[in-house]
Amino acid sequence: MKRLPSVLLLWFALLAAGLGLASPLAAADPAVPIDWSYARQLREKSRTGGTLTAEEQAYLDRALAEQQRTAAGAAAPGAAAASGAAAASGAAAASGAAAAPGAAGDIDFARARELMQKLRSGATLTADEQAYLDRARAAMRARAGGPAGAAPAPTASTGLVPLDQMTAQDRYKGEDGGLYGAGMNTPPPELRKAAAREIASIVPRDARGNPSPAGKIVLISMGMSNTTQEFSRFKQLADADPARRHEVVIVDGAQGGRDAVRWTDKGLDDAWKTFDDRLRAADVTREQVQAAWVKHACIGPASLGEFPRHAEQLKTLWAATLNLARQRMPNLRLAFLSSRIYAGYASTALNPEPYAYESAFSVRWLIRDQAKGDPNLNCDPARGQVTAPLLLWGPYLWADGTTPRKSDGLIWNREDLAGDGTHPSPAAGREKVAALLLKFFKTDPSGQPWFARPAADKAAGAP
């Protein structure tokens, strides 16, 4: 087994202090390093359908979250120096900044309260102010003996307003309403025009990606455990639906335990290898993939900072995933993005509210950045190298628990979520998302033209 980069060891130690995860083998003692061979065994057990004990899941979550924090730390100034310190003497000696969050002696809590009030008023904190507030929060949790990033008490309603119900005048921490912003829930004219261009290029293709009447249109998923649980049920419904175009092949590429970080990791994870294996099992190629449903999240987003910091980090990781996807699948034209389902019933810090709700802003910002001409998200060959597919909202899945959503009455009851309150339950929650996905692809103007059978084919009784 290759020696792990020292930055991994640093971030893992920080994770243990920051997330407060419990495991009899590691989480209880942050000084004990992760046994990565054991972590891989747990990952394989989970991926092959095995049920992990609470202790095993905590151990695996800790290992996965370390990778996430490593990615965040690697991009930050001073990360290289910190990693060297970690290699020499562990996380405790990495740097004064690393040790400071747990120390309350030098915290001015009057200043921290001022910063909290500023944040609540909708103002944006500077990087230094946010770092100071995060330190104060960590110190207060340490004083109280509570774990950093702990989930709030489960609730059937948070009082938050679904993004698609907010208007252009409404505000959430400085952000206005509407999926696309400015109170709009449908793509603006220029984006609709771009979508029409990409849809025109989605045609059946042979294994080499050339247009062919006998070819296939492959729709894939990318994301974590929730994504694969929901999309696999969607695939079952869609494969049995006579309205689906017969050339459309649906492949669930999403994978349990693989959060946004692990889709950007080229060296320590095999998410893309598993993805390719699933394409081969479906007898399709990368060149035939033309549309994707992508739903990402970060493990323990509280460790990344309060809004907008965790949402910005998710956006960055999401963009990197889309870049890799376009590199690997040259005919990928459309990526439909969805944020998380309701997580108010969550009983762990894996991804509770309001982080699930706030992940919608990561989607909006990605679409906005592409529309503004970000070269790292360019989908138009007339503007230079294509680096990403066109980004659009897929179905918006969040509703405030048992409060019916005005647009369609969507609610999330406790039985719609599994025991952890985070993953959708097999009998109810997965079915809800699958039904929303099927309706979206059959009726949305960006999905229906290539996903659904033409009316003439239906009338003629074509297969």
How would you explain this protein's 3D organization?
By secondary structure, the protein is mostly helical. It has 16 helices and five strands. A five-stranded parallel beta sheet has the order 2-1-3-4-5, with helices on both faces. Strand 3 (289-295), helix 12 (309-328) and strand 4 (334-337) form a beta-alpha-beta unit. Residues 1-31, 74-105 and 141-148 have low confidence and may be disordered.
Supply database-style keywords.
single chain; 463 residues; mainly alpha; 16 helices; 5 strands; disordered N terminus
Task: Tell me briefly what this model is.
This protein is mainly α and 463 residues long. The protein is built from 16 helices and five strands.
**Percent helix:** 40-55%
Strand content: 5-15%
* Count, helices: 16
**Radius of gyration over C-alpha positions, nearest whole angstrom:** 22 Å
Question: Order of SSEs, N→C?
Answer: HHHHHHHHEHEHHEHEHEHHH
Strand order of the largest sheet: 2-1-3-4-5
Largest sheet: 5 strands, parallel
In one word, what is the shape? globular
User: Which stretches are poorly predicted, pLDDT < 50 over at least 5 residues?
Assistant: 1-31, 74-105, 141-148
Rounded to the nearest angstrom, the distance between the terminal CA atoms is 51 Å
Structure summary, number of beta strands: 5
Structural class, please? mainly alpha
Averaging pLDDT over every residue, what do you get? 81
